[in-house]
Design brief:
Blueprint: H1 3-12, H2 15-25, H3 27-32, E1 35-39, E2 44-48, H4 63-82, E3 89-100, E4 108-112, H5 115-128, E5 131-141, E6 147-159
Antiparallel strand pairs: 1-2, 2-4, 3-6, 4-5, 5-6
Helix pairs in contact: 4-5
């Protein structure tokens, strides 16, 4: 693990600092209660609660709140790998697919295990001095391990030119 990756993980694991980041950069996630529960080089786990701010009229978590947490589980792994990178790398979602299997009526946990794939895609973008894309899966389950939803996010990583 390189020094900038370690620094990023340490920063993310500081609850107050991370909540300040959410408040200023992702206020919807802050107010919805989206939280990173676990992160390392290969995997992240992000949760979203079922509460008044995340509910829909059908007594379950609104699909957009689920998508926000799923996106964060993939995006934080990308952010970790582009943090303080030289050359600088931009990242952007270019596609999203979702499948829903069960109503989310409690906290939902999204797991992404694509850290290595994301890192390799960024290295390929740097080597080609261009852009590379990757599709990464995030799987959402409830506390009993029942499948709630699966999301596929296509991320594009591009070397920034000055």
């Amino acid at each position: 693990m390189n020094a900038s990756t370690q620094k990023f993980i340490k920063m993310i694991k500081r609850p107050v600092k991370f909540r300040m980041f959410l408040f200023w950069k992702l206020p919807a996630a802050f107010f919805s209660g989206v939280r990173i529960k676990e992160i390392d080089e290969e995997k992240s786990i992000v949760s979203v609660p079922y509460k008044w701010l995340t509910q829909n009229p059908f007594k379950s978590t609104y699909f957009a709140s689920l998508a926000m947490a799923a996106e964060m589980s993939t995006g934080v792994l990308g952010m970790m790998n582009v943090y303080k990178r030289m050359p600088a790398i931009s990242m952007l979602i270019t596609n999203m697919e979702a499948s829903y299997f069960k109503k989310a009526t409690a906290k939902t946990y999204f797991v992404c295990e694509g850290g290595g794939q994301i890192r390799n895609t960024i290295e390929d973008a740097i080597a080609s001095k261009g852009s590379k894309s990757i599709t990464i899966k995030s799987t959402g389950t409830n506390k009993n391990g029942e499948l709630i939803a699966e999301f596929l996010f296509t991320w594009s990583f591009k070397v920034k030119t000055n």
